[in-house]
Amino acid sequence: MSQRWSNLLVWAGTIAFIVLVSKAAWAGNPVNGTSLTNLVVLALPVAGIIAMSATGLVVVYTTTGVFNFAQGAIGMFLAYVDWELTVAHGLPQAVALPLVVLVIAPLLGIGLDRAIMRHLQGKQLVVQLMVTVGLLFAFVGLANMIWNQNNAHSMPQLFAGKGFHIGDVLLTWHRFITIMVAVALAIGLRILLVRTRIGIAMRAVVDNRDLAALEGARSSVLSSFAWALGCSVAALAGILIAPETADMSTTTLTFLILTAFAAAVVGRLRSLPLTYLGAIILALATQWMASFLRFSDRWTNVPDALPTIMLFIVLLLLPRAEVQFARIGQIRRVERVSSVRDTAIGLAAFVAFMAILTLFLSSSDPTNTNRLALGMCTALLALSLVPLTGWAGQVSLAPLAFAGIGAVAYTRLGGAHGSVWAVFLAALVTIPVGALFAFPAMRLQGLYLALATLAFAAMVEEVFYTQPFAVGPGERPVARLHLLGIDFSSPKSFLILVTVVFGLCGVGVVALRRSPFGRRLVALRDSEAASVTVGVNILETKLAVFALSAGIAGFAGAFYAMSFGTLNNAQGFQMIAGLPVVLALVIGGVGFVAGALFAGVFGFVTLFVQDNWHISLWIALFYLAPGLAVLGIIQNPSGAVVPIGEGFARLLPWRKDAKQEYEEMTAAAAEPEVGELGLERPFAESDVLLVDRELGISNDVPRPVAAARSS
Amino acid sequence: MGLLEIDEVSVQFGGLLAVDDASISVPEGCVTGLIGPNGAGKTTLFNVITGLQAPSGGRVRLDGADITRRRPYRRARLGIARTFQRLEAFGSLTARENVLVALEMRRRWAKSRYDSGKIAAELLERVGAAQVADKRVDSLPTGSARLVELARALATDPKVLLLDEPSSGLDEQETDALGVLLHELTADGLAVLLVEHDMPLVMEACTHISVLDFGRIIAEGTPAEIQADPSVQRAYLGTAKSAS
Fold this sequence. Notes:
The complex is a heterodimer. Chain A has helices at 3-24, 33-64, 71-88, 93-115, 125-146, 173-195, 197-207, 209-214, 219-241, 250-255, 257-266, 272-292, 302-317, 340-360, 367-383, 385-391, 399-412, 420-436, 438-443, 446-464, 491-513, 516-526, 528-533, 538-564, 575-588, 593-612, 616-635, 641-650, 658-669, 685-695, 705-710; strands spanning 163-166, 169-172, 475-477, 482-483, 486-487, 566-568. In chain A, helix 16 (385-391) runs antiparallel to helix 24. Chain A is built from 31 helices and six strands. In chain A, a hairpin with a 2-residue loop joins strand 1 (163-166) and strand 2. Among the domains of chain A are: 48-155 and 178-275, no CATH class; 340-574, no CATH class; 672-710, no CATH class. In chain A, strands 1-2 form a two-stranded antiparallel ribbon. The longest helix of chain A is centred in the first third of the chain and has 32 residues, at 33-64. Chain A is mostly helical. Chain B is of the alpha/beta class. In chain B, strands 6-7-8-3-9-10 form a six-stranded mixed beta sheet, with helices on both faces. The radius of gyration of chain B is 18 Å and the shape is globular. Chain A binds chain B through residues 323, 325-329, 332-333, 335, 516, 519-520, 522-523, 525-527, 529-538, 668, 692-693, 696-701, and chain B through 50-52, 71-73, 76-77, 80-82, 84-93, 97-98, 100-102, 104-106, 136-139, 141-143, 145, 149, 152-153, 155-156, 165, 168-171.
């Protein structure tokens, strides 16, 4: 479909959506000068906050290439620091605010850049994203640990909530200042980017990172500066929005950033004026819904979904991505593809291990058995991403949404009495939904696709489960499977069942990787341009892999539903709950079946910790653990299962070659530290080879370094 | 008329005319050379032929059929194969798997079944990359990776082969072997379009050469004619000489 027609379609759909929703939900309030003025006065401060948050995202993304999910969490954390200084220690805001925004925030930004972010360049997109997601959880955990959430926190507005009236609405000085700060930020950034040396360098990086580096833009200085600026802006937004929330909930403040995604994407993650425009449109639309529309029953959550609906629409309007040239060796991965036989033996051993383990689990108290079963469901769900994200390189943040659809399908299509067919129907229902994603995936590359899946997950959460045909209000009972005359309703037998299902799917997935289709997926990821020139049909391949992934996720969803026992509309499948699954898979290793198993174990351990230690420190650790794991990802971007597997294989008498194989594998994937070549350190022989390789001129005879330097 | 006809193709990037009204005919059974200074538009022209870049004007014909609007994978299936100036091998697959991906695509529309493993081994042998068959391609030296790309292109069983600087990264011996291979391929009836900076190789292998400069074809002819052409020497050979 041509660009023009598809854009026309999206616009028509959007307008139809707006008209239909407005008509159906019309609250009957009069639309006149006063009510519209009120709308604008209420919307502008919100627009200011959204614009600030989005600006932070854009500045960091354009300069460093990292899309920072933790932007909101950083703002939340720094707002709490400001709270500590003002409310707890009585410092006047006039001192505390500049201190936090201009000193503490930039220091935090520089620290983050040096410790973590700088090491993300050239890593897989999913790894980059999950490191910032891990950071998000870490900041929430840290804040919960320091500022006990059982006590109420609140921050007073600036000037104690005084203000002036415009029409009927009181515009507090606080909100007025919010608008002014957003405007000042826009002007300040404009001057920075156009008039100053560092700003011009930042813009140069936007246009071409490699070229800017060659022209002497010092990327390390730039990225530290961008992170410092990003954190300052986050702090501003956090401190200004905190008094507007009821109780400074750490999670509310953190996830406000999701509203900024749509605005940032309007600016295509680079244009600040368009980002501001996006923020204003979003704020006006939100306020329009609040002022003139009423949503009830199954549509209650539509206003909450608005930012993600807008994000989805804007993504669909982006111009079609060009065929991607990859160039060999840009991203290096450790990937060991086990043989189908080895995988089958390994997974059979795991099933046996689990069966023996059940002998030691308590029969009277099934809590741990149920947790283990839920962990195996998580493993099965994570497995759905191994072909899609691990091999085909398509980042999906919506596996849990597909599982949710599968869970609903199972429950409504026979799962209430444990029909076997319902399990397969669950997969069958999700497959076409997943396949539909291949179409946006043809237009959107990388990050944009990831954001589209995130928006999809949010929309499913807000408007799907509440529908009467799905779950609706109240609870729906779910029965566990009857199969071949066996009733799997007891916790232990169910655990074994899920483990066996995971084992079978795991072997199937490895067999797939070894098949022509699996090779084609990896080929597509490694070089789209080369794939099409050998005759690979990208659409067909993406359709297949999205369908496959959704099918496995839907399958997993059926087992989730059985594991839960009942289904209600808010339970278990929220967009946010999906992120830790992806995170755990990335920590384990996104290209490995064992990585999916790792995610399952990770899920079990967090459930165990969460339920067993009711001390705030440990609950905080529940968040902090994934945050700390971030550091592990940087050490080992291919996944924890690589060294774990090697350690395990060494114990096996017939795998004497394991150590050597591991060393060869990691050496092949080792990335040369380019850093500030020529500025911080001289060229080494390996650098000469690297440059030659990049330019494609190497004869692969290592030239003497001295000769290379003197010429 | 050539098997592959590039007919008054133009490509515009913003204000820049990267390819300006270029026409080239690539007949079967011989090597056609395409030379020109860096940035002349050679790779852009390759992208137009393979469908990775839409031209702003002109036509591409294969066997008389207009393929200007065909999707890239369709053109591959019609028999156009290429290698890339900057490597585009499937880095995390082995050399053998790289070739297999292409072979398996072919198998899907070929009528008879055949042993792709055996053919892959033969192709790697033919281009001289047999000894690296089971190595991951991103761990290979540039030269070997180029040979793998060549084997992968041949695996699609092409009618037209576009080679974008195949000799860069190869040592002298390998370059000679490449020259021999080109002769073998054309003897089998393949049409080859060769972009190359190695002048001895070009002059030796090509029967006909087009010279591209700033997107325009400034000269065409036999190697001898091209070498004698003063405008070519000005645009290309002359500057190359003074630079080296």
